[in-house]
Amino acid sequence: MASLRTMVGRFRNELREGVAYVVFWKNGRSWGAEAFWLDPGYFEDYGGAIEEDDAREMRQIIKTDPNAIVVNGFESCPFDGESTVEHMLEHIRWRYEDHRCQLSDFYEFHNKAEDELGAQPIITAKRKNAEPELEAKEQESPQPMEAKELEQLQELTSTEDKQRICSALAPVLRLTRNLYDLAYLHYDPGTETVKATFLNGHTKTANVALDSGTAMIRDIIQQIV
Question: Which parts of the sequence belong to the Large polyvalent-protein-associated domain (predicted)?
């Protein structure tokens, strides 16, 4: 039976380097772990995509443990070359017990790009040679949404996952000169604040009370730079 400490020790180099995404999950009383690398190739502009073999393995892990977490030593945890196994173990155990950095959310987010691209219309020879009247119909202005469709759309967009916004924002901010050393952003719904943790352990807190998602992004940047 493998312990969490054993798994963290086994993947300590991947966690310190901060390139791979390391998944941790429980199977009964035993712990499992595996490292994954996003494919930057065709989906580079969409934030990376999970290769099919990895996606299949992730689905199996989620089936085994719906609370499985995924950790990146640069994006979601303040790890570096000097981080000890005990230090990393503490952070990873806390994230698992507090249901943070869940693999199910990660899988859904990074598979979204592929789903969106796959939904684009494919221009085939048959379609290209369609009857003129059919092409004219396709070029007509779209009809206004029905009231029911608008209501459904509003329900889908009425709430925003602010932690997810923070998790997506952090890697972008690290591309800037001022925030290259940002480790991660954590949103606290209780206080409506965002805590920015830097690689040197220093933290800054941004007040984002009553903010929408876009307003929150603006306030985070203004208050932590």
Answer: 2-106
Contact criterion met (CB below 8 Å) for 113 and 43: yes
d(CA 224, CA 96): 27
Domain count, the chain: 2
The predicted pLDDT at position 154 comes to: 56
| Three-state DSSP state, 66 | coil
Q: What angle do CA 52, 99, 31 make, to 5 degrees?
A: 65
Contacts of residues 4-10 at CB distance under 8 Å and 24 or more positions apart, as own/partner, are 4/31, 4/89, 4/92, 4/93, 4/96, 5/85, 5/89, 6/31, 7/31, 7/32, 7/33, 8/33, 8/85, 8/88, 8/89, 8/92, 9/85
Helix (H, G, I), strand (E, B) or coil at 14: helix
User: Pick from 113, 143, 177: which residue ends a domain?
Assistant: 113
* CB neighbours of residue 17 within 10 Å: 14
Instruction: Decide: 162 and 190 in contact? Cβ < 8 Å.
Output: no
Q: By residue range, what is the domain housing residue 197? A: 162-224
For the chain (225 residues), the mean pLDDT of every run of 10, in chain order, is: 89 89 94 85 53 89 95 80 89 91 87 47 43 52 57 59 87 85 87 87 88 90 92
**H/E run at residue 145:** none
